[in-house]
Amino acid sequence: MTSPVPSAAASTPQPEQTPGPAAARRPAPHELLGLTSPAYGGDYNPEQWDEATFAEDLELMAEAGVNLVSLGIFSWARLEPCEGSYELDWLVEIVDRLHDAGIAVDLATATASPPAWMAADHPESLPVNADGVRLGFGSRQQYCPSSTVYRERSAALARALAERLGDHPGVVMWHVGNEYGCHTAECFCPACAQAFRAWLADRYGDVERLNTAWGTDFWSQRYTSLEQVDPPAAMPTFHNPAQLLDWRRFSDHQLRSLMEAEVRILRQRSTRPVTTNFMGDFPATDYWRWAESLDIISDDSYPDPADPAAAHEVAWAGDLMRGLAGGRPWILMEQAPSAVQWRGRNSPKRPGQLLLWSLARVAHGADGILQFQWRQSRQGAETFHSGMVPHAGCASRTWDEVVSTGRALKRLGPVLGEPVRAEAAVVLDWESQWAMSSTIGPVGFGERFETARAWHRSLWEAGIATDIVPAGADPGADLTGYRLIIVPAILIDYPGLARRLEQAVAVGTQVVVVGPSGVVDVNAGAVLGGYLGSLRPLLGVRVTDHAALSGPVSDDDPRGTLVNRLSRAVGTPAAESWTGLEAAGEPLRRVLDRMGTPTPDLRAGGWAEEVRVDEAPGGIEAGWGGEPVEVVAVFDGRGGGTDLAGRPAITRRAVGGAGSGWYVAADLDALSRAALLKLVCAHARVRPVVADLPDGVEAQRRGQVLFLLNHGDRAAEVAGIVGTDLLTGKACTGHVVLAPRSALVVHCAPNTHPLTECNPDVKQ
Ligand code: GAL
Ligand code: ZN
Hints:
eleven-stranded mixed β-sheet; nine-stranded parallel β-sheet; 21 helices; globular
């Protein structure tokens, strides 16, 4: 049948461009905020308290070394008690008094939660969920991002605050909204449906192009007018993946436009830098795009003290924020002084952890450490969320640790503005994540960049400093400065990214692509002729099929088969919990032999692919030399995945003798990732920040400052540390001992051990 629609190539929109973060072109936070030591403080909500408490707050803030507070985040109801009539005097008075006390203000536009009058008088401003239920007032963030009244009233409030306080000497920064999308990332109301259609009209021009992009000939989904298109609300069965992907793009765009509108208003009336608080790798918002509008990147981060891998969460979010800031420092806008209240079980921070994690944030590039919140609330949904001043008052461990953290940060002036330099990078792409969660099969993918996190964690566990960089389209960031680049499950095929990776490999970089990558186009349509798409010339392989495995914990694991008398007789590859891999060459075999672990073998679970090595890789694209593809490991049929036995699992294509493109066709377990990284890092000449550290000790450095962070429960000894301990002012002359959950911050003289000797190859 001949299709009456234009060809896909002609109508497929190119990915939106993600240029380098604008924050990279702006001054560093400490210059913008006039800091001489890292910012320290928290969300401040004095309207919840009386005058006597306010006076006490000022004294306690001085004692804790607070120099910055975020004010007014949830104050809309007090600032505009009736629609259009403002009461700002009380806020001005608070800013005056804080300023007199030497405490600077990060002033919120207060638009995070509209007051009761908006819900009552304009019920259409309330958001609607996918089941068509309009959500009620009495919680927070109850606004539809397309609501005209919300847009008008939030803009007017931002304007009123900017006009009144935009040049107040006590206001040093603007805090737009609060955690956009945290509770309401999408809305299915008629206004949003209309806005979605307008967004689609903008993207596709006409309905035929949309039909082509979305593949609506499948399941009789053809539209004859854009007016027929609805948001992907509740439906009988699977959504159209392209519709879902566009819906996620639209929802991100809609929220972002709220932030951008406020930023424009503030910039017209105030010269103060602008931020909004991010939430790490929050799935709904493409922060590479959000960062474009901001002067300062800030983050809210709540690792679970009960999670043994919580310190990796700190590192992951920190590296991501630094990436979003274009390599510049950023600010931790919120962390819990101790426990949160929103998990099923809310563990308090362990002794020492507030300071340790604060310093870990600084080590990963933060120049400010703020908490949620200053004083623990007495009422409301967050009554049992910790505060810097706890319910118990100052006779408490939390308060003691708040004070000692403030004192420690005061001493870190030499760190301000200093860069973190990394030789390794992990690529992170929100659109690919959206494509993954919009795509149906071959396995259900998670929402939180699981593959990227896993590989970043392996690098972190190995002590290797790592940047996080965008996949972007053309022109994207130059990647040739990295010795090692991980491309972890970047599902969308980006020709621009492939080109930049080729450029890096050509100058000697090791690129490790991890599947599933290059599987779909920007409309979630499958790449034909073998997955990996534009990455194929670089890797010299193509993926010819996916093989889903069940993942490490399943009823069908070896324990399950002891009791599952009926199903244990049935062998299907997808029922296996893991699959074995075998080194196919000497180098990897040697690495495994040397690792000295009880089971130095390779395993994967959850994901494996059928890979075919291209016989003439050089023929795919002119100019690629034709170097042979080396099979580094094969599936060996142990565990499960027997149908793949003998097929390539890890490949490497060397280019010009120096750089190479590696492909990993399975989600390796931690031990296997570590083994492979040893081999790849040897090729890349990437080394840990400090070699041979004891268990639990992380090393990071910013300029001449070395951070040693002991996350472990035991004291740890490190040799060869020479410099000045910034926290105590004492000299370190070699051997240092770190108590459990403690840190050392050493200012090393230029060109002395350990900064140069431990990592002499770092490009400065
Ligand atoms: C954040 C939010 C704060 C507070 C905090 C509690 O999501 O921005 O207002 O609710 O969580 O952990
Ligand atoms: Zn809506």
